[in-house]
C-alpha cells in the first residue's frame, strides 16, 4: 500500500555541515568555525566540508536524479548577518536565493530551517543563548531571511534539536561551545523557546507566501516492553518525563511550545518555575506541523546490566555504535500524535555506515537500504492505524561534517570523497528514488 498522494519525500542537510566557504563572500564566523579546535575527531573543522557553497548546480542535479520532492536545508546565521546582529551580508542572501531558484527549477520544494547550531561567534562572545537578548537577535535575523526568501519558500522550521545544541553543548561539553555548566540550562532553555516563539510570529507576520511553519526537535522515544496497555502507558510516560534524560528529553522542549505547559519536574530540577503562565502564552505559538528527528529507540541502564534497555547482546548497530531498532519510528509517530495532536513530519532519520567506493566504482550500502526500508515500514504501520504523518526527510542528502565526530561517520545518500569533492550516488540513493517514484508502494 502506498502513502497518501501528497506525502512529502525528501532529504536534508545543515549549512555548517555541507557548505564550507567559512570565510568567503562576507560570511562571519560561527562557534563551530572557531571552537572546534581540540574538541573534534582528528581536529576536523567545517571550514571546507562538502564545498556545497561552490557546487550548488551539481548538488541540486544529484537531488533531481534521486527524484527528491523536498529538500530541507538550514540557513547560516553568520552568512546572513556576520556579527549576528546589525549589517546584512547581501552575498549571503544571494547564495540562498540561488539555491532556492535551482531547487524550484528542478521541481524540488525548498524547506528552510532557520537555526541548525551555527551560532555567530560574535554573539557567543556576548553570552550566546544565555543572554536574554538572544530571542531578539534571532527574531531580527529571521525577519531578514523571511523577507528575502518567502516569495518562493513556504515551508519553515524555526530551530533544530535544542535538546542537542543546548543539552550536549552546555551540559555534556561534546558540542560547541563545549561547556559543562548546569547553571546555563535555565537561561538557555528559556531563551531558545522564546526565540522559537518570536520566530514563528515573525514568519507569520512577514512571509509573502502563506507560510507552513514547524519546529524540529528530537528526544528519547521509549518502546513498550510488551503489547500490554500498561507497558504502553509506562513507555509513554518515560518518553515525556524529564527525570530520565534531563535537557535531552522530548517534553522539555515541546511541551511549552505546543501545549503551553511547563515541563513536568523542571521546577524541582531548577528550584524555581521555568515560565510564568503569561510567558507560556507567548511561547505557545500555533504550528502547522511538528517536525521530529528520530534515529534510535531510547534506553537507560537498569540495575547492573551491561546493556541499556534498548540494546541486547550482539544487536545491530550503525558506525557510531547506536543500536538499531526500527520500531522507534512507529512509537515516535504514535506518541507524538497522541500528546500533541499535530501532523508529524519526520525531519531526520538515517544511518551512518562504513561506506567506501568499491572496485566497480560504486558504493554498495545494503545496510542503509535495509535501515530505511524497516523504518518506513514502521512509519506506514503508524499511518495505517490513523496517526498523522505528512512526510519523511532522510538524513542526509550527502556525507558531511558530523560535528564533533568529524568526517568519519557517513549518513549520506551521496558519497563524498573529501579529498577531491567527487560525489558518487550510493545504491541507497537509487533505491530511495524507486521508493519515491512508487510513493512507498514498493516497500
TrEMBL record:
GO biological process: cellulose catabolic process
Domain of life from the UniProt record: Bacteria
Gene3D superfamilies recorded: Glycosidases (3.20.20.80)
Top-level EC class as recorded in UniProt: hydrolase
Pfam families reported for this sequence: Glyco_hydro_1
Keyword Hydrolase in annotation: yes
Family: Belongs to the glycosyl hydrolase 1 family.
Record's protein name: Beta-glucosidase
Organism: Succinivibrio dextrinosolvens
Record lineage: Bacteria, Pseudomonadati, Pseudomonadota, Gammaproteobacteria, Aeromonadales
Amino acid at each position: 500500500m502506498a502513502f497518501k498522494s501528497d506525502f512529502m519525500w525528501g532529504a536534508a542537510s545543515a549549512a555548517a555541515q555541507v557548505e564550507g566557504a567559512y570565510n568567503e563572500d562576507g560570511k562571519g564566523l560561527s562557534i563551530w568555525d572557531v571552537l572546534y579546535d581540540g574538541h573534534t575527531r582528528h581536529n576536523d573543522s567545517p571550514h571546507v566540508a562538502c564545498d556545497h557553497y561552490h557546487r550548488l548546480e551539481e548538488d541540486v542535479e544529484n537531488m533531481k536524479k534521486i527524484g527528491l520532492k523536498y529538500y530541507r536545508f538550514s540557513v547560516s546565521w553568520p552568512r546572513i548577518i556576520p556579527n549576528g546582529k546589525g549589517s546584512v551580508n547581501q552575498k549571503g542572501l544571494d547564495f540562498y536565493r540561488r539555491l532556492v531558484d535551482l531547487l524550484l527549477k528542478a521541481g524540488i520544494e525548498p524547506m528552510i530551517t532557520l537555526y541548525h547550531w551555527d551560532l555567530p561567534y560574535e554573539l557567543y562572545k556576548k553570552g550566546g543563548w544565555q543572554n536574554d537578548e538572544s530571542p531578539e537577535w534571532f527574531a531580527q535575523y529571521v525577519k531578514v531571511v523571511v523577507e528575502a526568501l518567502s516569495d518562493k519558500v513556504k515551508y519553515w522550521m524555526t530551530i533544530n534539536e535544542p535538546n542537542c545544541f543546548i543539552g550536549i553543548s552546555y551540559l555534556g561539553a561534546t558540542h560547541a561551545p563545549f561547556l559543562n555548566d548546569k547553571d546555563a540550562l535555565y537561561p538557555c532553555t528559556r531563551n531558545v523557546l522564546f526565540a522559537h516563539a518570536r520566530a514563528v510570529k515573525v514568519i507569520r507576520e512577514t512571509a509573502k507566501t502563506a507560510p507552513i511553519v514547524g519546529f524540529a526537535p528530537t528526544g528519547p522515544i521509549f518502546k513498550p516492553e510488551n503489547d500490554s496497555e500498561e507497558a504502553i502507558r509506562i513507555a509513554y510516560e518515560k518518553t515525556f518525563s524529564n527525570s530520565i534524560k534531563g535537557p535531552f528529553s522530548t517534553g522539555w522542549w515541546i511541551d511549552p511550545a505546543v501545549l503551553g505547559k511547563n515541563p513536568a519536574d523542571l521546577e524541582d530540577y531548577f528550584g524555581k518555575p521555568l515560565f510564568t503562565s503569561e510567558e507560556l502564552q507567548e511561547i505557545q505559538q500555533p504550528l502547522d506541523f511538528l517536525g521530529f528527528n528520530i534515529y534510535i529507540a531510547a534506553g537507560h541502564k537498569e540495575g547492573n546490566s551491561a546493556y541499556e534497555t534498548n540494546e541486547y547482546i550482539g544487536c545491530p548497530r550503525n558506525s557510531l555504535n547506536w543500536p538499531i531498532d526500527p520500531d522507534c519510528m512507529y512509537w515516535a509517530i504514535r506518541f507524538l500524535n497522541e500528546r500533541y495532536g499535530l501532523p508529524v513530519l519526520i525531519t531526520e532519520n538515517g544511518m551512518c555506515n562504513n561506506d567506501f567506493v568499491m572496485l566497480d566504482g560504486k558504493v554498495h550500502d545494503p545496510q542503509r537500504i535495509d535501515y530505511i526500508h524497516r523504518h518506513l515500514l514502521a512509519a506506514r504501520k503508524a499511518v495505517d492505524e490513523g496517526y498523522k504523518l505528512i512526510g519523511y526527510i532522510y538524513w542526509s542528502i550527502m556525507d558531511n561534517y558530523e560535528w564533533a565526530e568529524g568526517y568519519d561517520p557517513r549518513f549520506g545518500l551521496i558519497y563524498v570523497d573529501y579529498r577531491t569533492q567527487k560525489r558518487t550516488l550510493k545504491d541507497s540513493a537509487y533505491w530511495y528514488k524507486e521508493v519515491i517514484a512508487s510513493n512507498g508502494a514498493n516497500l
